[in-house]
Amino acid sequence: MSVRKAERWVACFDLHGDQQDADTVRVFNQFVADFRPTVRVCGGDVWDLRWLRRSASDDEKMEQVSADFEAGMEFLGKFRPTHFLWGNHDQRLRDALDQPSKGGALRALASAWLDRIEVGTKGCKHYPYDKRAGVLRYGDHSLVHGYAHGVGATRKHALVYGNVIHGHIHAIDRVSVERHDGATAYAAGCLCRLDFDYARANVGTLRQAHGWVYGVNVGGRLTVWQAQKVGGAWTLPSEFKEWR
User: Mean per-residue pLDDT for 153-160?
Assistant: First the structure.
């Protein structure tokens, strides 16, 4: 009996810079160091960039914006992704370059930070925040940041992309759809804190959960495992052990 070599991979989503959950990020970094994946996918929304929202309040605009950016850069430096899917929050930095109303100083800052991202992720393949071009095809799955929201988001991603892994909704989900060739979509969970202030009254956010996905690629077919908290402890199904 021959044994085919398995390539290890991991994908994480939705750090949101200074809005990250410190304990989740700590455990994730420990996991990556132990698992030693060859393919490391950063699924986007590394930064929150709430101060760049068009509807941002004056208080949000006055927040310490550098803390958000530096937190994301520190994470990227430790994770060292091989692939980077830009998220809708990250895209705000690129959009700032095309908005004269933002002012020259802000556009100059955005340009400088984009240069730092390029240098800090040298050798990493980038994918834009785009429903067509922002798709990483890996084995028999696609990975996207996420282009749908709500309780039906994971199902919709399966209908659009087939076997797919996505973030964006900050929730953990798995949905198989009725297709002749079969398709399963996975929502990976998030690395950021739950219950953002702007969503304090949105009961839909109660399904949000910390986590990431990982697995092995054997002959172009992915096995997908979900890391998540169960009873207050991190459970990794591939290792049959708890992380604390």
Answer: 97
This prediction has a pTM of 0.92
Q: Give the pLDDT confidence score for residue 38 in this predicted structure.
A: 98
Alpha-carbon distances of 51 from 47, 89, 121, 155, 206, rounded to whole Å: 11, 10, 24, 32, 25
Report the DSSP pairing between strands 211-218 and 221-230: antiparallel
Q: At 160, which CATH number?
A: 3.60.21.10
Q: Is the pLDDT of residue 25 over 90?
A: yes
Let me know: does 168 contact 149? Beta carbons within 8 Å.
yes
- Residue 96 makes CB contacts below 8 A (sequence gap 6+) with 52, 102, 106, 107, 110
Q: How many domains does the chain have?
A: 1
* Burial (0-12, 13-18, 19+ Cβ within 10 Å), 106: middle
Please report whether residue 128 resides in a domain: yes
CB contact at 8 A, 108 and 93: no
What is the distance between the alpha carbons of residues 29 and 93, in angstroms, rounded to a whole number? 26
